[in-house]
Amino acid sequence: AQSVTQPDIHITVSEGASLELRCNYSYGATPYLFWYVQSPGQGLQLLLKYFSGDTLVQGIKGFEAEFKRSQSSFNLRKPSVHWSDAAEYFCAVGAGNAGNMLTFGGGTRLMVKP
Amino acid sequence: GAVVSQHPSRVICKSGTSVKIECRSLDFQATTMFWYRQFPKQSLMLMATSNEGSKATYEQGVEKDKFLINHASLTLSTLTVTSAHPEDSSFYICSASSLTGELFFGEGSRLTVL
């Protein structure tokens, strides 16, 4: 069975600083990988996804993620964080025909200092 | 873009009553819908997968008689929490997969059982 680990439960960065959120996955085949963001009390917004091809994936809001098969990782990065980026971030691995049956990591709560 | 709507967004009920949550794909046909549960400050856990016109597939540990799922049309899936108890209080989120395999999440429904 697939699993996802987000080692950092909380991260605090200063506004304007760079950000990297870690994600490690376990999956028997080539994974479908996703990053979602969730604001308090709301649903999920897709930031980016990896299915195949270029291992560096560009997403919305200036986020990117890099798939590294050798490390079973799919870390999320942003060069300069904005206060509005404060939220909960979930990494997920997808199974099923279209990779839409998702297993989520535990989430990382991002706080941004002014 | 594609929209998935959940209703109600918040519901409070008395212990022992049943509650129905709807998940609608507003502008596309959803061959498959997924139901997730999220406890406070925790990740999303897949409860079940529903395909239009067939019985839902439940994840291990999820009581199918407790959480009734109906996917009667390509745009609507319902989750009924039967005889709800306080421990069923949670945030329930659905996602819908389009015919092209794209996945969209609803905004979630917060259930509070008194």
Structure characterization notes:
The complex is a heterodimer of chains A (about 110) and B (about 110). Chain A has about 110 residues and is mainly beta. Chain A is built from no helices and 12 strands. In chain A, a hairpin with a 5-residue loop joins strand 7 (about 55-60) and strand 8. Chain B has about 110 residues and is an all-beta fold. In chain B, about 0% of the residues lie in helices and about 55% in strands. Chain B is built from no helices and 11 strands. Chain B has strands spanning about 5, 10-15, 20-25, 30-40, 45-50, 55-60, 65-75, 75-80, 90-100, 105, 110-114. Chain B is globular, with a radius of gyration of 13 Å. The mean pLDDT of chain B is about 95. At the A-B interface, strand 6 and strand 11 of A face strand 4, strand 5 and strand 9 of B.
Overall shape of chain A = globular
- Summing up helix and strand content along with how strands pair, one would put the structural category of chain B as mainly beta
- The SSE order of chain A reads EEEEEEEEEEEE
**Total helix count of chain B?**
0
Question: Largest beta sheet of chain B, briefly?
Answer: 7 strands, mixed
Fraction of residues in H or I helices of chain A: under 10%
Low-pLDDT runs of 5+ residues of chain B are none
Name the helix and strand elements of chain B from N-terminus to C-terminus, one letter apiece: EEEEEEEEEEE
Strand content of chain A: over 45%
Instruction: Give the DSSP E fraction of chain B (strand runs of 2 or more residues).
Output: over 45%
Radius of gyration of chain B: 13 Å
Give the structural class of chain A.
mainly beta
The unreliable regions of chain A are: none
DSSP helical segment count of chain A: 0
Mean pLDDT value of chain B: 93
State the end-to-end CA separation of chain B. 37 Å
- In total, how many beta strands of chain B? 11
Q: Sheet with the most strands of chain A? A: 6 strands, mixed
What is the average of the pLDDT values of chain A? Answer: 93
Determine Rg of chain A (CA atoms, Å): 13 Å
Oligomer: heterodimer
